[in-house]
Amino acid sequence: MKKMALVLIAAMLTITMLAGCGSNNNANNGANTGTNTPGETAGNTGGEKLSGTLKVLTHRTDFISDGTMDKYVKKFQETYPDAKVEFEGLTNYATDILTRMTTGETGDVLMIPPSIASSEYSKYFEPLPDTMFENVYFPDQAAFEGKRYGISSGVNTSGLVYNKAAFKKAGIDKAPTTLDELYADAQKLKDAGIIPLYMNYGAQWPMGSWGDGSAFYVAGQPDLTSKMAADNAPFQLDNAWGTLLTIARTFVEKGWVENDLNTNNWEMSKGELAAGKAGMYFLGNWVIPQLVTAGASSDDIGFVPLPYDNSGKYNAPLGSDYLVAVSKNSKNKELATAWVDFFVKESGYVADSGFMPIDKSQKAETPQLSEFQAANPTFIEGLPNDPKFSEIANKAQIGIGSGNYIQDLVTAKDLKAGFDTLNKKWAEAKKALGY
Question: Which keywords label this protein (predicted)?
Answer without folding.
Answer: Cell membrane, Lipoprotein, Membrane, Palmitate, Signal
